[in-house]
Structure formats: C-alpha cells, structure tokens
Amino acid sequence: MIISEYFIPLEIIYVFTGVYAVLIACSAVFRILYHKKKSETFKTLITKVDSWWRMVIGITIIVVAPPIIGTILIGYISFVALREMMSIGRLRASDRVAILACYLCIPIQYYLAYHNYYHEFLLFIPLVMFSTIAIILVLTGDTKLIGRSMSILPAMLMLTVYLLSYMVLLFNVSTPYGLAGSGGLILYLLALTAFNDVFQYTWGTLLGKRKILPKISPNKTWIGFIGGVLTTGVLAYLISGLTPLEGLDSFLIGLAIGVMGFLGDVLISAIKRDLKLKDTSDLIPGHGGAMDRLDSIIFTTPLFYHLLIFCM
After folding, report:
1. Strand partners, 217
2. What are phi and psi of 63, to 5 degrees?
C-alpha cells in the first residue's frame, strides 16, 4: 500500500488492523460492563486499555512513519526515560552540569544512529560520554560521593539512550524486496518482547511454583521463564515473515529475546527494590513509568540487531 509515495507493507497493515480491532473491542466491552456495574476492576481495565491505546499509537508511528519521524519519537522516549531515572537516582546538586551533558548527548546519539555512523555510534556514549562525565564531575571540585555519580550517570545513559538507540539502526538494515522492510523488523522485535512478558506471566500464573529470584521479582518462576522463552521462540517462528530470517534462525532469535527480555525485566526490578519503589513513575496509568515498559526492550533491541546482522 502506498500513501503519499510512502510504501507501507501489507503485512504491517494486517498486523495493526488486528491490534486495533482488539483494542476497539476491549474498550467497548469494558466500558459497557463498567456502565452496567460500577466496578473498580472494570475501571482499572479501562485505564489499562486507554494506556495501551497511547502505546500502540506510538508504536504505529515508529513502524509506519518515515524513519526520521520514528527516530525523533524514539529519541523523545529516551529523553523521558532518562529524566525518569534522574528523578529517582538521588543525585547530588553538584552533578547538575554533568546531568545537562547527559541530556545534550541524546540528539547526538540519535543523529549518529539515524545516519548509520556505526563506528561513532558504538563509541560515543561508552567512551566519549563516560570520559566527559568523569571530567565534568572532577572539575566541580565536590569529591563527596563522586565515585557514585561517576558510576550511575553513565549507567543511566547506557540504559535509557545507548541501548534503546539501537532500534534506530534497524531503519538502516536492507531487507530483500517484498518483505516488510525495517518497519517489519521493529514490529517483530516489539511484538516478541511484549508477548514474552505476557507468556512468562501466563505460564508462571498457571503452573509456576518454584521462584527464580524471590528477593527481586517474587512473581518470576522457573516454569514461567522456561515456558515463556519457548513460546516466544514459537511465536518468532510463526511471524518470521516480517523479517528476512529463515525459520530456524527466527526460532533461535526468539529464544534469545525471551531470555534477554527476562534479564532486562529483573534488572530494573532490582533497581526499584533497592530504591524501595513500586514503579519508576506514574507516567502511564496502570502501567507505571517509561522504564517499567522499557525494561525488557532496552536489552532485547541491541541483541536482536546484532543477531539479525549475523544471520543475514
């Protein structure tokens, strides 16, 4: 399908048609039920579905719009996530200049990703910004807890900007003619990451007993983890048509995404446990903050990019 000379693959249109149909049905049913019975359960479900509308519309823009629009939106999401982490990071007043430098690096990182300056992309945050932050902190002259700030600020940049910006590199991956293009790759990644969370939760709720990390994420079980990873692998195989991957490669990448998605989830959970927080913020009603939604995707995105390039 071509809109204003911009090609939108039919596979992507079919997927989003199904997603929006489900959202419309859920919105209508929950509102009708809430109108008949003023239940807090239905009110909560309506809130969650409304939040999903916002997230799905954002995903649609990233997948369907021209890459420059998707890049700007992903960059904005990085900004929101970084601001969220800064707000809970318990940083020092003397860190303000270094914090400003962190924000200013966002457009630079996404500029490098959008133009596929791969070597510079790889080095900018891990090397240039790591060194720059340390130098700025030293020049402030405040040595109290300076080691903590030197560690936490680069870590925040890695989690919220560097890892997520790999998604923009997917816009530059050339796929064979007739496939769903870069939009299909991003949709494939996001679908597997999102459903992996759902699968692990479902298997864990139905059959899970033995906990994996009870002090970090009490709801995570071995059955939920294994069942979720295997189911994600199967889903990856079934929707491999969105990518140039062969069936077996797609299945194995699905397994890897399942494992890495779990690790990203528990990493952010560990940070929240340390800070005694339920959510990183209340940005998304019913879902928590930006980092509560990005916990898995920030780990699965660079993994998927590198495995995709390797398999192609």
Report:
1. none
2. -80, -40
pLDDT digits (tens, 9 = 90+) for 94-106: 999 999 999 999 9
Q: Return the half-sphere exposure (C-beta side, CA atoms, 13 A cut-off) of residue 38.
A: 0
Identify whether the C-beta of residue 175 lies closer than 8 Å to the C-beta of residue 11: no
Which residues are paired to 180 by β-bridges? none
Single out the residue of 170, 174, 195 nearest to residue 185, CA to CA. 170
- Predicted TM-score of the model (pTM): 0.90
Residue range 6-15: mean pLDDT, rounded: 80
Instruction: Please check the confidence at residue 1 and state whether its pLDDT lies above 90.
Output: no
- Which pair of structure tokens corresponds to residue 94? 């003397």
Helices (H), 170-246: 181-207, 222-238
Strand partners, 211: 221
Instruction: Give the tokens for residue 27.
Output: 């919105």
232 to 76, 172, 191, 212, 252: CA distances (angstroms): 29, 25, 10, 19, 10
- The tokens for 167 are 């998604």
The rounded distance, in Å, linking the Cα atoms of 117 and 19 is 34
Q: Please give the structure tokens belonging to residue 303.
A: 């993994």
Statement: residue 148 has pLDDT above 90? yes
Reading the block at residue 81, the tokens are 């996530």
- Looking at the DSSP bridge assignments, the partners of residue 288 are 284
The contacts of residue 184 (CB under 8 Å, 6+ apart) are 9, 11, 12, 175, 242, 243
- Residue among 77, 132, 70 at smallest CA distance from 106: 77
DSSP string, 47-110: HHHHHHHHHHHHHHHHHHS-HHHHHHHHHHHHHHHHHHHHHHS---GGGHHHHHHHHHHHHHHH
- Which long-range contacts (C-beta less than 8 Å, at least 24 apart) are formed by 128-136? 129/101, 129/102, 129/105, 129/154, 129/157, 130/154, 132/101, 133/98, 133/101, 133/102, 133/157, 136/97, 136/98, 136/101
